């Protein structure tokens, strides 16, 4: 099938980047792929060619921060029904949740769109009751949570040595991989997040979900204040990272900080980002790279502060999903945040938004006199992965990263290291427009080489038609899992896996 042929090529591409070449032998022995060995080998040859230059002989050091938590993953509709929370006749967004009515209205706002969202619950007794009931829902399970710990474990599994900035209890420290060193004193009790998962077609009253996703609620204290920041910063210089990953700052969204405290904490994060940049352990002996992982933000003032304090002065790379991309684009255009976007956008729409964000961030950086500009964007969607990388930057093969991210998406959502073609399908068309513009070309998805890459020139001045440096765009189809085990943590695993192959 087309899906199996796409998988075989991308798996071969992935194997070519492995730190342990014996994986190639293990892969070729898979009985289900005996008819696709040739395609697999083609993927291996292309991605291991001198052009990609992504082979590594030393373990890469990559510290992610900040925060961590215990995730209670539960059937969201079952939990609401158990609590007696009736479907709201009024789907309405709330920046934070103070009572059951706001919980019902906010869940109803995102659920039918299949849009991922995360909100702070200001009512401690309500959150405590939710947590107690969640543990009693059939099938409920706990897992390691938080952007930084999830990315840390993924990067460690891909061959990195990791310094994690988080305060975790001993129970969660035990599930971290041995390659992960934790900076931050342990806590007695972890912050808890409730992950209200739902499958495609789930029903809640008159609402039906368009796709599988999750609605996350929390009432954090440790993570919102970034309590691991100082310990993390103190160990960063000696660790000499090749890559610093910053995430988890959505915990600050609508948290009741004293006046001025939030900006002070963000500036402390910026100090760590700039300190990492000045290290000499980056790719090819250059400065370390800094990646910022976006998340679900509802507070436009926080997002504006993140842009001014962190993204413009100190980020080389941004990662986000199909909801977070238009959110950032709207802010850059001077508008409000976009709370809900198309859960399954067209490739052309995403690529155009990526071009706008990439150009707008770099234009602001130029105007501010910032010498080191944004050089990478990664957008992960249900149907495809898209990676934009500046030419002649220190980032390595976008083709390999897109293939790896695509495979990781299926594995994580299905909860299996093996990809079962019977539980996956391609929902991306067999060709796509490279842009929504009138003169856009169409790009065919070739099963024998499914990751499409091409180069474009950045438009520096749209009015004058002045162009700047060249960047590469790579798009990879995703074998979408049809037997969903989990959606939470998907973006973190996908982004981390893609990053590892570009450093």
Automatic annotation (TrEMBL):
Pfam families: ADP_PFK_GK. It comes from the Eukaryota. One of its GO terms (molecular function) is ADP-specific glucokinase activity. Signal peptide: none annotated. InterPro entries: ADP_PFK/GK, Ribokinase-like. Keywords: Cytoplasm, Glycolysis, Kinase, Magnesium, Metal-binding, Transferase. The keyword Mitochondrion does not apply. GO terms for cellular component: endoplasmic reticulum. GO terms for biological process: glucose metabolic process; glycolytic process. This is ADP-dependent glucokinase 2. It comes from Petromyzon marinus.
